Amino acid sequence: MSDENLFDQEDYIKARVDEYIWQKSTQAGISRQRFLQILATMVGGTAIGGLAKPLPARSQTNTSNAFKTKGNKILKPLPPGYISHSKGTLEMNWQTMYGRGYLVPNDWFYVHNRNTPPPFDPATWRLRIEGTGVSIPCEFTYDEIIAMPSISVTSAIECAANGRRFFEEAYNTPLSGTRWRLGAIGVAEWTGVPLSILLERARLKSTARDVLVEGADLASLDEKGTKPSKFNSVVPIAKATADNSLVVYAMNGEPLPPDHGQPCRVIFPGWGGNANVKWIERIEVSETPIYTQWVLEQMVLIGPDYPAISPYKGKPITYQNVKSAFELAWPATLSAGNYLLRGRSWSGKGKIVRVEVSLDGGKTWQFARLREPNLPFAWVRWDVDWNPVPGEYSLQARATDNLGNTQPSTVPWNDVGLLYGGVVSHPVTVREG
Q: Lowest mean pLDDT: which of 56-65, 122-131, 233-242, 371-380?
């Protein structure tokens, strides 16, 4: 499967389900055609799971007592004006980005830590690559990785739950999890070794299908409640070997900070934030699809508009969607006068080619001026002139990327509040100058 085809989630999901059917029919000792005939006699797609052996449970619920901390789960100081939803989250304040450059400084970058960053000893840390998809399992030290040929990629990392609060407001229904507005995103210059180089050192097989990346942080207990498991995510081999998929050790020209994955993390530009695992220790390459509980049950869209595609609990999440944000306080209060409204728009599938702004709650629209740089998988800065009189305003922005993806006015509900990509109304009060 080419990386280009991965832009289409339907193609990606269909390919994985086809592989799953083939894998399970082979294990059952019957032909794929006969297996499909059997499925046709059953009710619903969940019947596939009924013929398979139970998958290893790798629960992602944070219930482990082995990694609890007494204080904050974030090590860096809280930047002025930023929002901390919990001890492990730090949301970027869009107002502070007004007048700033293209990149978000390390100190100001958003954070979502499940636990306090684990300690790092460069003398003992190792990254292991193993699995049926490689011929020579191997380990790399930190010094070996930073001595390899490296490249730098400017890319966004965005939590899949960015914008969750807008689901609550649109549907008047509360959701569990961090109530992000649009500040769970940041763009940085990431420096590291292409993951493809490390995989070639392990003699990547042509039959390799999936890549699991595992971090050092304990995310949960297994199904027996006795063994802590580590956070992980899975990407197909086409994404893992893409030119811009990196094992990163530097951020904006500095060693990777603890809150952002020290000593190393992976970057898969365009994919949801959870794919970009921090504090990595192990990479497993498999000749068959890898299914973890996180991938099957939590990184999916679940709701009436997203029927389950077995073995997934809902529609799997891969690439991020299109979003826009104003560089304003929420809500904003301004004095009447002349303003240069600024904002940023981004897409997980490419670069932004058009941004439209409404100053009257969506009644009329005008094109915003796009400012360079405008990089794919990152964002573009834009601005419009505004001379408001006193009153209440609802500002809106909608962007379109080079593949034709545009922000819709409404977004179907999903039970976890992921991938909110609808047009957002930003409240602004203008007072007498």
A: 56-65
